[in-house]
Design a protein that fits this description.
single chain, 322 residues, Rossmann fold, 2 domains, 11 helices, binds 2-keto-D-gluconic acid
Length: 322
Amino acid sequence: MEKKKILVARAVFPAVLERLASHFEVQSNQDELNYSAPELAAALQDKDGLFSSPSVTIDGALLAACPRLKVISNMAVGYNNIDIAAASAAGIMVTNTPGVLDNATADFGWALLLATARRVTEASDWLRAGHWKKWGYDSFLGADVHGATLGIIGMGRIGAAIARRASGFDMRVIYHNRQPVADGMAPGAAWVSKQQLLAEADHVILTLPYSSATHHTIGAAELDAMKPSAILINLARGGIVDDAALIAALRAHRIAGAGLDVFENEPAYAPEFLSLPNVVLTPHIASATLSARRAMADCAADNLIAALHGQMPRHLVNPAVR
Ligand code: 8YV
């Protein structure tokens, strides 16, 4: 039987590519060429499946130009890079990789929170620049993390993994979702309104998916509602925070600091962030451990293999298509 054809749109682990090649005729992009939209459409003309990632924009226009495409397997839990309504209307299955990255991503949320609250990168840069001549009782005073109130906006699997870790820091944990989560999902964490969370949290962590409904969940008004001593951590998606409003708030010391793994328009970011000492900036690496990224790639491959072999993929985002 003739093999189905897939495009792997970004570089991926060679072993995963080999596995895909044992099932499909694969066109891969190990050289990380930056496909324009027409180039992507051209590459997808004869493809049944697409192995993609959040850096690949898959909109209605692209889907309309790729009539043969049956499955999009996104190597990420988030899938806001894909127009799901257009994919569903075209009968294209979309899959994602939930679960396998929760702990690595939660660990990184803590890395960003601790680094920002305790000014780790700022102090490290200062030492590297040769400024350390004597110890100072007030050098790089930061904010306490232990015993503080942690506010989590978006209590899903990753938010819950962050909340679990908070018990080791003796923290009070509050969270906001549209509705309280089921008992047992976030033991000890209390649902509060967004306003209450912003007013009471010493540290706010964002772990909610991006959509038009969550666009600018944190803007000027929300930053104003936070404590001046508060730290904001975004490891969810760019666009959940209004970056221009955040820069203004940081400049005016309306909040104490921010740890950011994601940005509006990434990999581009607002250059003003670079001149602010009270921000920690990382290039979308929250899930970047070898085991998590390999598990995500394996999961995305499993989904694609199942779907193109006529089986139900484990992580189907738009089940109505089946
Ligand atoms: C990915 C992520 O590493 O899963 C997601 O939604 O944001 C990250 O874990 C990144 O998007 C690249 O795939």
